[in-house]
Amino acid sequence: MTRSWWGWGTVEEAVTGAELEALLGRVRMLAPRDLTGHEPPDVSALGLLAPRVSAPTALADLCSADPADRAGHAHGKAFRDVVRNLHGDLRHVPDLVARPRRERDLVDLLDWCARDGIAAIPYGGGSSVVGGIEPRFDDDRAAVTIDLGRLDRVLEIDPVSRAARIQAGVFGPRLEDQLRPSGLTLRHFPQSFEFSTLGGWLATRAGGHYATLRTHIDDLVESMRVVTPSGINESRRLPGSGAGPSPDRLFLGSEGALGVITEAWMRLQERPRWRATASVHFADHAAAVAATRAVAQSGLHPANCRLLDSAEALVNAGVAVGGGVLILGFESADHPVGTSLDRAEELCRDHGGEIRAGAAGESTGDTWRSSFLRMPYQRDALARHSVIAETFETACTWDRYEDLHHAVTQAARVAVRKVTGQDGVVTCRFTHVYPDGPAPYFGVYAPGRWGSTVAQWDEIKAAVSEAITGNGGTITHHHAVGRDHRPWYDIQRPDPFAAALTAAKAALDPAGILNPGVLVPAP
Ligand SMILES: Cc1cc2nc3c(=O)[nH]c(=O)nc-3n(C[C@H](O)[C@H](O)[C@H](O)COP(=O)(O)OP(=O)(O)OC[C@H]3O[C@@H](n4cnc5c(N)ncnc54)[C@H](O)[C@@H]3O)c2cc1C
Questions:
Q1: Domain FAD-binding PCMH-type: where (predicted)?
Q2: Which of 98, 130, 415, 517 could lock onto 484 through a cystine, CB 3.0 to 4.6 A?
């Protein structure tokens, strides 16, 4: 398999043939426009500027100046990244890509960067969708991207406490492969699982597949080891601790701006043996939301509790339903879960839900699940045909959900019409639900204009970001802040906390080399 330099995943998995025809057929029905396909440029013909720095001799064999390597590490994997790659628009490319083999190499690389004023960008899988790994700064300093892919081993397993010491550069599948012989699993499955790393999950506070309880990677961390320019910070392995503010909390979500995570002790569990799933169809969206809230507040804690609105159900699961579909799933390694599902179904029936258990019910969930894994590939195919296809996400309390949903949907629709002159499709699903509120995740599909889709998307994104933060939502529930969410993060974040974070940055990274411009202004 060959990793795509410009888009998601592997070249071999790209959307072609009948799948592409079917996809474009659906878009044509939505709004006819020019759907000419555009080929990605040849990476060797991009004409990148030569690196502005060269590594000291002692570090030279860790560093690559290969143009394809540099281009492949320039952008994350958001729609705007993919489109810019398709246009060969690579203005901010790392000068070098460094691959430390051990922690000592990393310390030496950071020392060199601090000495020479070079930006150091920690890099896991590069699946950031918020400009988190792009060397885009206010000044024109040189940048070295530090790819942690060689630190990819499970170093130790403690079967008694059920935890493992794991290196940060390991990708999801290789991590699970190494745990499998022990019968244990981390069970953290973001949609990007295949092409993202443990370090990236920790640094962005990623959201996994659990819809309730352990939604974020935070809940699975026992302790972390972080290399900072001011020294190594390692927290103690503890099941819980009330000893002051948590050191791990400082580095969870630090997005490579405070230090480089090299290892973490992660909490594991046995693989589930009992599962029960169902799909519930609703004629009315408000009733579907009320049922989802009832389940979220019931204490049943389903592993899956994903409400698809009618547009999402139609676009991504092929189901025509008036109010939405709730996909429910329970799992346990210890006990049967049928009674939990029975009770959740009862709550849904109380709100007018119609249970589609068994073959029919499972097929809605199954269709949606396989579509879920194809979505990023299909997004790239649409991008090549000038279709705007992107997502954004948030969380809010239940009392504000209706207003937020209305405001955000309206803002997206108005912005789409303004920038494309046509109507698009706006979909919504809940990725996670809490007793006090949901995490709504929106999709926008609209016919764009080749050469303008990034500018068109940026205008839509600005409009929806205003609507989100203006209606009680967070600028991100699990996609992190990066460079693209900074304007709204700065508004959302309390001023004293911003001052404390800036002070922490100055203490840990006095030369201001780590991922400048992410989370706090570059010094
Ligand atoms: C198709 C698709 C689906 C996605 N699905 C999900 C999802 O379901 N849930 C979710 O939460 N996110 C999702 N994302 C976003 C992205 O996958 C996450 O943010 C992920 O956690 C990033 O991991 P990574 O290894 O790719 O990190 P990168 O993209 O390489 O880096 C992300 C940030 O973390 C920093 N960083 C990386 N490694 C380290 C380290 N070892 N130490 C310090 N800082 C580091 C980087 O500097 C950067 O700021 C998705 C993205 C795409 C493109």
A1: 90-271
A2: 130
CA of 122 to the centre of ligand 1 (A): 11
Nearest alpha carbon to residue 343 among 298, 393, 406: 298
Q: Which pLDDT score, from 0 to 100, does residue 362 have?
A: 52
Global confidence as pTM? 0.97
On whether the 28-147 domain is CATH 3.30.43.10, my answer is yes
Closest CA to 150 of 104, 193, 99, 97: 99
Q: Over the range 207-229, which residues count as b (16 or more CB within 10 Å of their CB) and which as e?
A: bbbbbbebbbbbebbbbbbbbbb
- Tokens representing 9? 């995943």
What mean pLDDT, rounded, does the chain reach?
Answer: 95
- Rounded distance from Cα 300 to ligand 1 centre (Å): 30
Instruction: Report the SS3 class of residue 50.
Output: coil
CA dist 167 and 105 (Å) reads: 14
* Percent helix, percent strand, percent coil in the chain, to nearest 5: 40, 20, 40
Residue in 167, 186, 192 to alter for ligand 1 test, most ligand atoms within 8 A of Cβ: 192
* 164-270 and 28-147 share a CATH fold: no
Note the CATH number of domain 274-470: 3.40.462.40
User: For the chain, what are the domain ranges?
Assistant: 28-147, 164-270, 274-470
Give strand pairing partners of 63: 98
Q: Would you identify the CATH topology of the domain 164-270?
A: 3.30.465
For residue range 345-375, what is the model confidence (pLDDT) as tens digits? 999 999 999 998 654 445 567 777 778 889 9
Predicted confidence band of residue 319 (pLDDT cuts 50, 70, 90): confident
User: What is the complex's ipTM, to 2 decimals?
Assistant: 1.00
Which residues are near ligand 1 (CB < 6 Å)?
8, 76-77, 121-129, 132-133, 148, 168, 190-192, 196-197, 199-201, 203-204, 206-207, 255-256, 260-261, 376, 478-480, 515, 518
